Amino acid sequence: MEQVLGSEWKITPAGGATGDAYFAKRDGQELFLKRNSSPFLAVLSAEGIVPKLVWTKRMENGDVITAQHRLIGRELKPIDMNGSNVAELLQKIHHSKELLDMLKRLGKQPLTPNSIIEDIQQAVAFEKLEQPEINQAIELLVRQLPDVQCDEQVVCHCDVNHNNWLLSETDQLYLIDWDGAMIADPAIDIGILLYWYIDEADWKEWLSSYGLELNERLKTRIYWYVLLQALTSFLWYHAKDNEKEKQNWIDHIKMIRIKMNSN
């Protein structure tokens, strides 16, 4: 990164799975640098969804370096996820035509419940998994396919973990880490957020801040995608041969199925 900024900048790794993110500091100015960010970042910045994009530079080797203002603030805590500011920002994202148009231009194809189930079934068959809890969960998802079809296709973040929400010193909220963004049913984001962070008794109020009314059809879609995410997480840890986390997700799958069958 020194060849991009110059030796007068102090550059340190910013962590993350890819190792392609850095912090840079000089004379009180702080930047967040990333190698090969998606062109999607420019639209996210223009929409005020991520910290402001300062510049983009293409290197001789073809790498693209982006620089954003380093945010002075904090990550949200789990309890913060019940705030109306979270619901309102997610609603803004899901209803942004600019974001949707950009993802389409980047070649993203909409995710459908049928295609997702096919991928899960293929992964389970490939791994030769015979666990009854997994097969029962897939059977339930297939059975509910007619009830989760949705004409609304929006930009979904797909990882609305509280660590990806940043609150600035001036109370400006941002949602970062867009590498997994997809075009899909907004219930993917809504469901994960509600299930893991908000008491079901408070779902109606949170959804009101988002602009939706809680009904049985929406609740079915929410739980459907929550179960799907739990299955995906189980398969991830199965591939990693992590028995402790596999059992953890089996327990979650059981609990989610109980919820789905009781609704």
From TrEMBL:
InterPro entries in the cross-refs: Aminoglycoside_PTrfase, CcrZ_PhaseVar_Mediator, Kinase-like_dom_sf
Short name of one Pfam family: APH
Presence of keyword Amino-acid biosynthesis: no
Residues in Aminoglycoside phosphotransferase domain copies: 14-211
MF terms (GO), sorted A to Z: transferase activity
Gene3D superfamilies: 3.90.1200.10
The keyword Magnesium is annotated on this UniProt entry: no
Alphabetic keyword roster: Transferase
The protein's name: Phosphotransferase
